[in-house]
Amino acid sequence: MSAAGKESKRVLMVGLLCQDILNLVDHYPTEDEDVRCVNQFWQKGGNAANSACVLSSLGETTEYLGTVSSRAEGSSALKEMQTFGVLTEHVVYSDCPIPTSCVIINTQTGSRTIIHGTRNMAELTAEDFSSLDLTQYRWIHFEGRNTIEVCKMMEIVEDFNKKVVSPDDVITLSTECEKSKYNMGDLFPKVDVLFVSKEYAESCGFASAKETVKKLLKRVKKGCTVLCAWGDQGADGITPEGAHYHCQAFPPEKVVDTLGAGDTFNAAVIWGLCRGTGLEGALRMGCRIAGQKCGQFGYKNLHS
Ligand code: ADP
Ligand code: FRU
């Protein structure tokens, strides 16, 4: 196993890199209306890619892993991610158009309406993942998608963890249950940190972040921390021992763009937990940085 200390190891974010086309409008259009946007810009998107950029900006050595279009628009999204300092040397290329989201940002409210096209991009497989040298990583976060393959990838990490000698070499595993359409329950027994979105929580019938973390704690493995972000209500978290914390949101002067608020929250929480802030500190960090993000377009210049 590696002799390197935990601090010198990487955080790996596994999941989607896509193209986001943001249309900024001063009111939400009605069906069949012909509107001009007040601004339009392209930026890289995808939960794992967004979180990787935020983590890297906060000073964590961060790598992104996923399938990437080998066409011009794929390289441009990848380059954009590299400008945040994200390492990308293990990505898997595919000759396929880049998955693309058309996003309507209502600048009056900051709301983001996303229409996403996968454009048949293949998902990362456990076979792709198996070629990594896991001694390089301290934390691996899997975006909650293609659950069957993600389950196999997590098993590779679990096997690795069973063999390590020093506790410093154990890799922390996390995932996010974001979309209700993925059958994420299979991942619950595997992760050390579980992020749950409001959308997923509501699809389970939970009415608040507090209820979500308390009820899901009973379904995760022993030792797992559960967090749930709830938009402008902030977020809640629960330790494996059952200590519950709530943190209020940090509203910016004006909310202009909430796209990727959850991805930013996850990144800042991971950053905090890697630095030993404990759950309460990490929740605060998550809400503070996500609040900053909501007050600006994109992910540049977020700071701790
Ligand atoms: P998602 O992007 O997954 O929908 P949420 O909307 O739950 O994520 O937001 C994640 C975090 O971002 C929240 O816990 C909160 O801290 C922050 N946040 C979201 N919306 C706002 C807002 N309107 N004002 C301030 N902070 C916000
Ligand atoms: C934000 C985001 C966007 C992307 C969409 C994919 O959380 O990652 O960047 O277009 O979600 O679902």
Automatic annotation (TrEMBL):
What Pfam family does this protein match (any one)? Answer: PfkB
Q: Which GO terms describe its biological process?
A: fructose metabolic process; nucleoside phosphate metabolic process; regulation of glycogen metabolic process; response to fructose; response to glucose; response to insulin; response to sucrose; response to zinc ion
The Swiss-Prot or TrEMBL record annotates one GO molecular function as:
ketohexokinase activity
Keyword set, alphabetical order: ATP-binding, Carbohydrate metabolism, Kinase, Nucleotide-binding, Transferase
CDD domains referenced in this protein's UniProt entry, alphabetically: Ketohexokinase
Which pathway does the protein contribute to? Carbohydrate metabolism; fructose metabolism
The question of whether Ribosomal protein is a record keyword is answered with no
Q: Name one GO cellular component term.
A: cytoplasm
Q: Which domain of life is it from?
A: Eukaryota
The record's section on Gene3D superfamilies has: 3.40.1190.20
**What InterPro entries does UniProt report for this protein, alphabetically?**
Carboh/pur_kinase_PfkB_CS, Ketohexokinase-related, KHK, PfkB_dom, Ribokinase-like
**Enzyme Commission number(s) from the entry:** 2.7.1.3
According to the entry, every stretch annotated as the Carbohydrate kinase PfkB domain falls at: 10-298
Q: Which SUPFAM superfamilies match?
A: Ribokinase-like (SSF53613)
In the record, the note on similarity to other proteins reads: Belongs to the carbohydrate kinase PfkB family.
Question: So what does this one do?
Answer: Catalyzes the phosphorylation of the ketose sugar fructose to fructose-1-phosphate.
List, alphabetically, the PANTHER family matched: KETOHEXOKINASE, PHOSPHOTRANSFERASE SYSTEM TRANSPORT PROTEIN
Q: How does it assemble?
A: Homodimer.
Question: What is the official name of this protein in its record?
Answer: Ketohexokinase
Taxonomic classification: Eukaryota, Metazoa, Chordata, Cephalochordata, Leptocardii
